[in-house]
Amino acid sequence: MPRTDDTTTTGDLVPVKFSLLTRRGLILGLSLSQMIVLGIGGASLIGALYAGGGILIAYSAPIWAAAIALTWVKISGRALVEWIPVCAWWAWRTTGGQLLYRRRIVTPRPEGTLALPGDMARLREYTDPETGAGMIHDPTANTLTVVVSVTHPAFVLLDPSEQHRRVTAWGRVLATICRSGRVATLQVLERTLPDSGQGLAEWWAEHGTHDGSWASTTYSELIDRAGPAGERHATTLSLSLDMKAAGRQIRTAGGGLKRAANVLRQEMTTLLSALRAADLTPSGWLSTGEIAVMLRTAYDPAIGPTLERHGRLGQDLATAGPVAVAETWERLRTDSGYHAVLWISEWPRAMVYPGFLAPVTLSTGIQRSISLICTPLRTDQAVRDIRKKKVEYISDRAQRAKIGQIQDASQTAEYEDVLRQEADLTAGHGVLRYTGLIAITAPATPDGRARALLDPAVVAAAKAGEVVLVGRVSGTIAVRGVS
User: Fold this and answer.
1) Which one-letter DSSP state was computed for residue 407?
2) Rounded to 5, what percent of the chain is helix, strand, coil?
3) Helix (H/G/I), strand (E/B), else coil: 248
4) Got the DSSP string for 10-70?
5) pLDDT by residue (tens digit) across 342-351?
6) CB 2 within 8 A of CB 20
7) DSSP letter at 418?
8) CB neighbours of 364 closer than 8 A, spacing ≥ 6?
9) Given the DSSP bridges, would you call strands 134-138 and 124-127 parallel, antiparallel or unpaired?
10) How far apart are the C-alpha atoms of 306 and 193, rounded to whole Å?
11) Which runs of consecutive H residues, i.e. helices, occur in 282-353?
12) Which of 235, 236, 250 is nearest to 144 (CA)?
């Protein structure tokens, strides 16, 4: 939850400071798994002492020594014991043959399903008869999601006062999704896509001067050659309805997916009004065909320009998924691309201005997708969470004082963040949890593999934006940290 600098005058661009990533534990910063492992090691050592000591302590040394190592030795900021479930799940998927996906092209798919691999195979689609929007239903998470495309002016080119006004307006949009208590998440997705050059060619055909002169001929040749080699940015917002939180309204309306769509439509109307008030231009809710093209382009980047040039081609959810997927510990390969997903594990610690991610979003020559997932917390849930954190910090401080440990500056900063969040919540502001992900895509070539694993340009841009990235692919946390 970012906080502003109160010393800044009204109308100026206000710097913000993000809260630290909470790394709390049950006792003295130790998690439940660490406490269990440490308890097993302590029980073996105490048992050896009571049984006679001496040689029995040496015999039990592998147990309590391993417990100490699992508890306090860390890799990429995580204790060894916390890697056990990750590695166990990876081994289970490896032995079960779940890392490879091959689509049966000749086998028809059930109507309303998405041809996606893995856990995403459970998703179902529903077309809203009133708005024509394609809604994605996740029966496991019990959510209903709709996507809208948004256009906006270049933020970095605006003067500071206008930037401040737009940041404030965007804050009101985020506050809007916190009020109803029925929104599960709001995802902001900014993608760089290979440009087919069709838009540039159409503009030149309509507004250009075709007089056969040297300038006209040179300009036409430049558009023909450089147009398809360019890239464009696309921004979408994904609004997810928590069907469990909205269960009463859905049951009152009659129940079922159709009634859930009616409730989601109310949230859609509210979001559109908030976006227009923030000087953002929504281009309309994406249909199932447009969502299919979006998914297909993500899995098969090389087909993107072709789908853009041929209009209705590929606008079918039955062909939206990949033909083949191969997953490894460090990367994911789909039809024509290699992908690596980086998790923003730490936001800037110092005061930064709202455009601090410009080096990441505006770097050229890299096909990437930046996803910011905002999870709003209901007021009662946020109050309970803050109260629990305060009790944990106070009790942890008392325990450290008893054993003579010194309070770290990071622990003090985390406690101050909790107090600030409590003050903001009391003042009527909403509380959101942020998750930042950066997906890098490269062509399916040997050079592309190394680049997709960890693109140096993205790392340099992340350093300029003062964010810390950690490798993360397909639900498996890679042993790779970048600061």
Assistant:
1) P
2) 45, 25, 30
3) helix
4) TTSPPPEEPPPPP---SBTTB-HHHHHHHHHHHHHHHHHHHHT-THHHHHTHHHHHHHHHH
5) 888 778 877 8
6) no
7) H
8) 231
9) antiparallel
10) 12
11) 288-299, 304-309
12) 250
Report how far residue 190's alpha carbon sits from residue 424's, in angstroms, rounded to the nearest whole number.
29
Q: Please state, in angstroms and rounded to a whole number, the distance separating the CA atoms of residues 432 and 258.
A: 29
Amino acid at 42: G
Helices (H), 60-113: 61-72, 80-95
User: Where are the alpha helices (H) located in 102-244, listed in sequence order?
Assistant: 160-179, 198-207, 214-226
With beta carbons less than 8 A apart as the criterion, state whether 134 and 291 touch.
yes
DSSP of 438-471: EEEEEESSHHHHHHHHS-HHHHHHHHHTT-EEEE
d(CA 2, CA 373): 15
Cα distance between residue 415 and residue 439, in whole Å? 32
Task: Say if residues 307 and 293 touch (Cβ distance below 8 Å).
Answer: yes
- 45, amino acid identity: L
Distance between start and end Cα atoms, the chain: 21
- Report d(CA 145, CA 285) in Å as an integer: 11
* Single-letter residue type at 221: E
Distance between CA atoms of 338 and 323, rounded to whole angstroms?
A: 14
Give the residue-averaged pLDDT of 23-45: 79
Q: pTM for the full model?
A: 0.77
Average pLDDT, the chain: 79
**What would the two tokens of residue 170 be?**
């965007």
Q: Where are the domains of the chain?
A: 30-96, 101-194+233-373+434-482, 196-229, 378-429
